[in-house]
Design goal:
The protein is built from 6 helices and no strands. By secondary structure, it is mainly α.
C-alpha cells in the first residue's frame, strides 16, 4: 500500500471517528433534553420503573437526532472541521426545535405533558404517541432542510 492510499485511508478513518463522536455528543444532548423536559430521573424512570411512555419519547428523539446527524454528514463540506461544525450546529437546531415542539404541545394539552409521559398509573397516555411522532417529524423536517 503506498503512502498516498494509506494517508487517505487514515484521514477518512479519522473523519468517520470525528463524525461518530459528534453524533454521540448530539445523541447524549438529546437524552439530556428529554431528561430536562420530563419529571424524575430519566434513567430511573426508564430502567427501574420501565416506563413505556418515557421509552417511546426518548427513542423517537434519538431516531430524530440520528436522521438530522445523517443528513448533516451527507451535506457536510469537504473540509472536515467545517463539516463537523455544521453537523453540530444542525444537530443543536434540531434539539432546540424538538424542545420547542414539546413546550408548544405542553401549552395545547390539558395537564403537564412531562407528567403525562412518565405516568405509570394508567395506560400509556395518547399524548406520548403524539409527542414521539412530533419529535420524529421535527427530525425529518430538519433533515430535509439540511439536504
Amino acid at each position: 500500500m503506498d503512502s498516498v492510499v494509506l494517508s487517505t485511508l487514515l484521514y477518512s478513518a479519522a473523519g468517520a471517528a470525528a463524525y461518530g463522536l459528534v453524533g454521540l455528543v448530539l445523541l447524549a444532548a438529546g437524552y439530556w433534553v428529554i431528561e430536562l423536559l420530563t419529571p424524575g430521573k430519566l434513567h430511573h424512570v426508564i430502567w427501574a420503573e420501565r416506563n413505556h411512555g418515557a421509552v417511546l419519547v426518548l427513542g423517537a428523539s434519538i431516531l430524530a437526532m440520528a436522521l438530522i446527524v445523517r443528513a448533516a454528514i451527507l451535506a457536510s463540506a469537504s473540509v472536515l472541521w467545517l463539516g463537523l461544525v455544521t453537523t453540530l450546529i444542525y444537530g443543536l437546531i434540531g434539539l432546540l426545535l424538538m424542545a420547542v415542539s414539546f413546550f408548544l404541545m405542553d401549552l395545547l394539552a390539558p395537564g403537564k405533558l412531562g407528567e403525562l409521559i412518565v405516568d405509570n398509573d394508567h395506560k400509556m397516555h395518547p399524548a406520548v404517541w403524539v409527542t414521539a411522532a412530533t419529535h420524529l417529524a421535527v427530525g425529518i423536517v430538519v433533515a430535509a432542510a439540511i439536504a
